[in-house]
Automatic annotation (TrEMBL):
UniProt GO MF annotations: hydrolase activity; transferase activity
Membrane topology classification: Multi-pass membrane protein
GO CC annotation terms, alphabetical: plasma membrane
UniProt organism field: Fluviispira multicolorata
Keyword presence, Transferase: yes
Protein name: Sulfatase-like hydrolase/transferase
Length: 729
């Protein structure tokens, strides 16, 4: 007899999709193809997830082994789900409603769906490149955000995405034909059974590996991103979707400070069915009296007196909040004097001559968190945001509070050169007091730009061109600025100076350092503009003379792999989780401006401006209560503190997504790092009272973010606290 050809055998084996053999073949094919897809994604993303921060070979092997086991586990689970869907669709849709559809076409349709899955998963590579972290439930909503999709469209053509998509596709086609060519059904069944058994075993081994004192190996390296996404989503839902606690937030704070053994656990056991938290005015006043804001550093008191004098005498006052994209201290020499070169020389100079905070931290690792911290005093993060995620969270921010206090004499603005729709910025800042919002549509289309928007230099030029028309009408101005250029994928705009390419390129370890240098130049242009531009009707005073400027980065980032100077506590011998936390969250926090210079001259008792370094622990979120204090607000609500206090009321907490970092109040560069699960758990693992309070406050803040009840400051005039009865929504 003539031997049946390979093509004939394959066609015969695929003819009837009701044959269980086909589904076993489909399972094997998709499992190994998905596994190859996951491995390629891991290969292309590991350097952005902290692999280069692991110092020993043993730990690197652990991270790789754990990650590969997690990848195999998810490949098997997803393949089983895929086959189950294929079986259901075939038996309950195709065989009943599309009977004429050929079996070969059904198989093609199933594989087209599988190929789409490969492509979608491969897009995780540019995501990790951008966020230096695994995908979160929050960011799944970005697929519906046109501004985000438009800005990220170029990532679809990434070479790494193409490889991670095309190679598994080829693997799937080859394996499918190979398995269908077998005449022996027993081999297919036995091999499938072996893979099915191996799938849960891989997960058991992975769990065992991660209980053997390797707890600080970066989580993104030892878990598959799909598995992590599912775990984060289910854990967050289970933890936060419960009834409100019986205690209001202020009672919780008060109770925690005085009873550090108290742990906010098992909220689901609370019996109060009230829709929202209610605040007792007496409890609120009691808390304020017991833990008031205490700006006890003399320079802070002097600055407050100067600002109050200007307000009282109706002199011009411009308060600026310049939030600088990814402008981490590591790229300069002010915080790292042993660095070979500074990519932030202008900012270093400003830091030397201003009020600089050398132990300051951002609240998280994303831009929206930076904006909400600086301008609203919130602890939000990668997983939570008032801008678009949390409908119950409706804070009051510095722009609207300034409008309320100073009325028509005040002006507020949010300046940006990107898409205002992105992250819900436009609606949020319209709702929270911005008289003017400037975004990408307010610029000439031919100006220098990157994929994300127009250049930082054009942003500051735009501000300069509008200032006179604003200042002729308003003497009190509150400006918030969000820069853009120093942003992944680190493209340098065409208006960069020759020095960027001719000088800095020789020393840069990563393109992000070049965009950092560009933004530094733009900041210098902004400062020079303020110094050289005369304020209208002010006896030849410049805009700089009438300004107080808060400079701070929104967050840091994990690239490049820069070695920290040896004299710093968190040097190359530090744990990888500590180094990662510092890279992602250290703040470039600085106060500058003519008003600051005037106060510094008085403090130096000479006619020279001598900068001040403040080394105590500080948070990016401290800018909000500090600014309110300078503007004369009393009885301010905040779980942050004044920048000018020596002893904090509340700890500093940094929410980086998968990790929660609490810097030590006593030892610079040290602290505690928890996984999100550990931070939200009921088991207190901290011997130090400070970290117990930090954990309780973090849990309380997260619970309230998800369940509402955020305080609204309703003060209308100085010393007025009688309108606080409706403080909670």
């Amino acid at each position: 007899m003539t031997e049946v050809s390979l093509k004939t055998r394959i066609c015969n084996n695929i003819k009837d999709l009701t044959q269980k053999r086909f589904y076993f073949v489909l399972f094997l094919t998709s499992t190994f193809a998905l596994y190859s897809n996951f491995l390629l994604i891991r290969l292309f993303t590991e350097r952005f997830l902290g692999f280069n921060l692991i110092s020993t070979t043993k730990l690197k092997v652990h991270a790789i082994a754990s990650g590969m086991l997690s990848d195999f586990w998810m490949a098997g689970v997803l393949s089983f789900v895929f086959v189950l869907i294929a079986y259901t669709v075939n038996h309950f849709i195709f065989l009943k409603f599309v009977k004429n559809l050929k079996s070969q076409n059904k198989a093609k349709l199933f594989f087209i769906c599988l190929f789409i899955v490969f492509f979608v998963f491969s897009l995780h590579i540019p995501y990790v490149n951008f966020y230096a972290g695994l995908i979160t439930p929050f960011h799944l909503k970005y697929l519906l955000d046109f501004s985000f999709v438009q800005s990220s469209f170029s990532s679809l053509f990434d070479f790494r995405v193409a490889v991670s998509f095309l190679f598994p596709t080829l693997i799937a086609l080859v394996l499918f034909k190979y398995f269908l060519s077998f005449n022996s059904k027993k081999f297919i069944y036995k091999f499938s059974l072996f893979v099915i058994i191996l799938t849960p075993i891989s997960q058991v081994v992975k769990v065992h590996l991660n209980t053997r004192k390797f707890t600080w190996t970066p989580i993104p390296l030892r878990v598959n991103f799909v598995e992590n996404l599912i775990l984060v989503y289910t854990f967050s839902k289970a933890h936060f979707q419960s009834e409100p606690t019986e205690k209001d937030f202020n009672n919780l704070l008060n109770y925690q400070v005085n009873n550090t053994n108290f742990s906010l656990q098992n909220f689901e056991h609370a019996k109060n069915n009230a829709a929202h938290y209610k605040i007792d005015l007496k409890d609120w006043e009691k808390l304020l009296q017991k833990y008031p804001l205490k700006p006890d550093i003399s320079i802070g008191k002097d600055l407050s007196l100067e600002v109050q004098s200007r307000i009282k005498n109706k002199r011009p006052l411009l308060m600026w909040f310049v939030i600088i994209e990814s402008f981490k201290p590591e790229d300069g020499k002010f915080h790292y004097p042993k660095s070979k070169i500074s990519f932030q020389p202008h900012f270093d100079s400003l830091s030397e001559s201003g009020i600089a905070f050398t132990n300051a931290w951002t609240v998280g690792s994303v831009t929206r968190a930076g904006q909400e911290a600086v301008l609203c005093g919130l602890w939000t993060s990668q997983y939570t945001a008032a801008m678009k995620e949390l409908p119950n969270l409706n804070p009051e921010c510095i722009l609207e509070l300034a409008k309320r206090k100073f009325g028509n004499d005040s002006f507020t603005a949010f300046w940006h050169a990107g898409r205002l729709e992105f992250d819900g910025q436009e609606m949020f800042w319209k709702r929270h007091g911005a008289d003017v919002l400037v975004g990408i549509n307010d610029y000439n289309k031919n100006l220098p730009k990157t994929w994300w928007g127009f250049s930082d230099k054009e942003l500051f030029k735009k501000i300069g061109s509008e200032l006179d028309s604003i200042s002729n009408k308003h003497s009190i101005q509150v400006h918030s600025i969000m820069t853009l250029t120093n942003h992944s994928d680190w493209k340098i705009p065409s208006d960069a100076s020759a020095k960027i390419n001719d000088f800095y390129k020789k020393y840069a370890l990563d393109p992000s350092q070049l965009t950092s240098a560009y933004t530094d130049e733009a900041i210098n242009d902004f400062v020079m503009m303020l110094k050289g531009k005369e304020f209208p009707n002010s006896n030849k005073e410049s805009y700089w003379d009438n300004s107080i400027i808060f400079f701070v980065n929104d967050h840091g980032h994990l690239t490049p792999s820069y070695v920290y100077p040896e004299e710093v506590t968190f040097g190359s011998t530090a744990n990888a989780d500590i180094i990662s936390s510092i890279k992602a969250s250290q703040a470039n926090l600085l106060l500058q401006g003519g008003i600051v210079e005037k106060v510094l001259k008085k403090a130096s008792k000479s006619n020279e401006v001598k900068g001040i370094k403040i080394s105590h622990l500080a948070s990016q979120a401290d800018i909000f209560p500090t600014a309110l204090d300078l503007l004369g607000f009393q009885n301010k609500y905040s779980i942050s503190d004044s920048l000018f206090t020596q002893k904090r009321r509340w700890p500093v907490v940094v929410d980086i997504g998968d990790y929660i970092f609490v810097p030590s109040p006593n030892k610079k560069g040290e602290g505690v790092v928890w996984t999100r699960r550990e931070a939200l758990s009921s088991q207190a693992k901290n011997k130090d009272e400070y970290f117990n309070i930090a954990q309780s406050l973090y849990k309380a803040s997260q619970y309230l973010l998800f369940n509402g009840g955020t305080l609204r400051l309703s003060e209308k005039e100085l010393n007025d606290i009688e309108n606080l009865e409706n403080a909670f929504l």
